[in-house]
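[Automated response] Your request has been received and processed.

Submitted sequence:
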Amino acid sequence: MGLDLKLKLVLPALLLGSVLAFAPGWILKLPSDTGLIGELKWFGSYISVPGGFVGLIASGAQIDDINFVVVDLTNFVFYSALAYVLLGVWEQRRTRARSGLARVQRSKS
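Generated structure:
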């Protein structure tokens, strides 16, 4: 991957990482617990798990003392890195598919 491609992937990865890090806090504040809102709350709590583990370790395994800034920052870093890797893999596969399609078109003509 070239430097230009790496820089092209950073902004979307950071954006997706920030949405996935901070959305659970907004989702969990919704007023209802039934139907679609209830399902969104379950999904939001599952998204917070990686940061929750790090927050629990940072608090000395005291569940009442978890620092949610640590949880949010951990989720931001985790999901940004995950999005960066997945976007990079997707871009490489797309580039290979395009080059393979170009070779097939050249061989047909």
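Summary generated for your ticket: Residues 3-108 form one domain. The mean pLDDT is 79.
If you did not submit this request, please reply to this message.
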